[in-house]
């Protein structure tokens, strides 16, 4: 699975948790999940669970702490899929 396909699936997972829909048109790999996209920490846990289910991977707690941006999430997903 290439990075663009993973990104498309990731954005579909993140979208329901973004209250300000105008933010979805400006998402880039540098977009911070909490500060830029206004996703609260409780929803971040839900997003991780959705990612684990969608990609059939397990994301350990120490990786969750490193998932600050969309790009970070893509890196972690890619690493887990490859690993």
UniProtKB/TrEMBL annotation:
InterPro entries hit by this protein: ACP-like_sf (IPR036736), PP-bd_ACP (IPR009081)
Domain Carrier: residue ranges: 1-81
Gene3D superfamilies per UniProt: ACP-like (1.10.1200.10)
SUPFAM superfamilies given in the database record: ACP-like (SSF47336)
UniProt-recorded name of the protein: Acyl carrier protein
